[in-house]
């Protein structure tokens, strides 16, 4: 019998408190043995939730100081110095809105290794999920609630972004989409994708690829917008890696993909809920209370934001455009023109872009941020 692999998972976060319990429970359930979370500048019970999970031994948790736009890269560099990373058989970096879905056997990492035993680095494509028509955040699990997604790769002839699971002994550190810098000759590394295909059987371009096999064995479910409430809060928060990127009208119209049903997470629901309950019981009921309070906090911020006319107008735009542009039916050059609706016209007649949501949200009053973690919570690398 092949022993279960030692598998390392790292993520970065800012104001993701409602989602940690489900995300950690799920990835523990499928076989990740070491989960590491770096957070920065959160004020929504993220620190308290992560500290509770750390105290149970469920995760390693570090506060992550870095320059603007560099938090992910800094976190991954620190993660590569951890013994858990260096001793792992496999490593992966995922964002908090990404879930690795294994579609073979019982959905475990060990099942994936059985069908892909000759791999060193796996290109695992995203399947992007839309808001499924939901506006308001609830206590439902992300993996249960959102079932409307993009077309499956392989059904349409296009590229999709991927994330990588890789052998850490062969690369310098995790990266946002793929590991940083091979430590041996590239032609010695065995690459495959989520359908078990070799690189000559699919097309690669930067961190995008095709998959004629339709992600047969594994994919990354990317709940990129969640519900409209969560998306608008994300818009106000901005991108962790691309500090100058506006998450607004265009982002919604390109990524809120509700084209096809994907209910492949349904078999995991009972397992996720059981593991969440086990973690909550071990915390003395603290984790579930923190989750409920964090959801209430996010909802309160959403309704406070809606007092701003520009925010209400943005919500109206999103509701009036409930689906992304379908690139299988609209050529990309034409689609780009139709998406140019974020521009307004100045008095001089020249097009200009409106203020970003990040700037607008700055005018919304917030409670003072809680005390940041003590030095014992900080990364030492």
TrEMBL record:
Stretch list, region Disordered: 325-381
Protein origin, superkingdom: Bacteria
UniProt topology in membrane: Single-pass membrane protein
One term of GO molecular function: glycosyltransferase activity
The keyword Nucleotide-binding is assigned to this record: no
Subcellular location per the Swiss-Prot or TrEMBL entry: Membrane
Pfam family, one: Glyco_tranf_2_4
Coiled coil: none
GO CC annotations, alphabetized: cytoplasm; membrane
PANTHER family found in the cross-reference section: GLYCOSYLTRANSFERASE FAMILY 92 PROTEIN
Name recorded for this polypeptide: Glycosyl transferase family 2
């Amino acid at each position: 019998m092949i022993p279960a692999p030692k598998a390392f998972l790292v993520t970065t976060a800012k104001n993701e408190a409602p989602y940690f319990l489900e995300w950690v429970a799920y990835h523990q359930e499928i076989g990740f043995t070491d989960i590491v979370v770096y957070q920065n500048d959160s004020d929504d019970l993220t620190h308290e939730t992560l500290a509770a999970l750390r105290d149970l031994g469920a995760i390693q948790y570090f506060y992550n100081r870095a320059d603007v736009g560099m938090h992910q890269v800094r976190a991954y560099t620190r993660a590569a110095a951890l013994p858990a990373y260096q001793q792992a058989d496999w490593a992966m970096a995922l964002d908090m809105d990404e879930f690795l879905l294994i579609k073979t056997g019982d959905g475990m990492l060990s099942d994936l290794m059985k069908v892909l035993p000759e791999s060193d680095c796996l290109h695992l494509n995203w399947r992007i999920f839309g808001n499924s028509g939901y506006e308001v955040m609830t206590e439902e699990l992300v993996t249960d609630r959102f079932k409307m997604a993009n077309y499956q790769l392989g059904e349409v002839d296009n590229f999709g972004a991927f994330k990588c699971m890789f052998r850490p002994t062969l690369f310098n550190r995790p990266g946002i989409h793929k590991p940083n810098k091979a430590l041996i000759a590239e032609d010695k590394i065995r690459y495959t994708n989520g359908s078990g295909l070799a690189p000559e059987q699919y097309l690669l371009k930067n961190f995008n690829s095709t998959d004629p096999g339709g992600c047969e064995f594994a994919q990354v479910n990317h709940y990129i917008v969640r519900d409209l409430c969560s998306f608008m809060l994300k818009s106000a928060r901005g991108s962790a890696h691309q500090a100058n990127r506006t998450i607004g009208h265009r982002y919604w119209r390109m990524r809120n993909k509700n084209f096809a049903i994907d209910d492949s997470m349904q078999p995991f629901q009972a397992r996720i809920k059981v593991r969440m309950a086990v973690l909550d019981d071990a915390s003395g009921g603290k984790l579930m209370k923190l989750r409920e309070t964090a959801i209430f906090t996010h909802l309160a911020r959403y309704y406070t934001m809606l007092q701003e006319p520009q925010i209400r107008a943005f919500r109206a735009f999103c509701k009036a455009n409930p689906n992304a542009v379908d690139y299988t039916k609209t050529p990309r050059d034409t689609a780009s023109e139709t998406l140019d609706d974020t521009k307004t016209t100045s008095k001089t007649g020249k097009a200009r872009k409106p203020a970003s949501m990040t700037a607008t949200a700055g005018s919304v009053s917030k409670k003072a941020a809680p005390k940041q973690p003590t030095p014992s919570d900080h990364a030492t690398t």
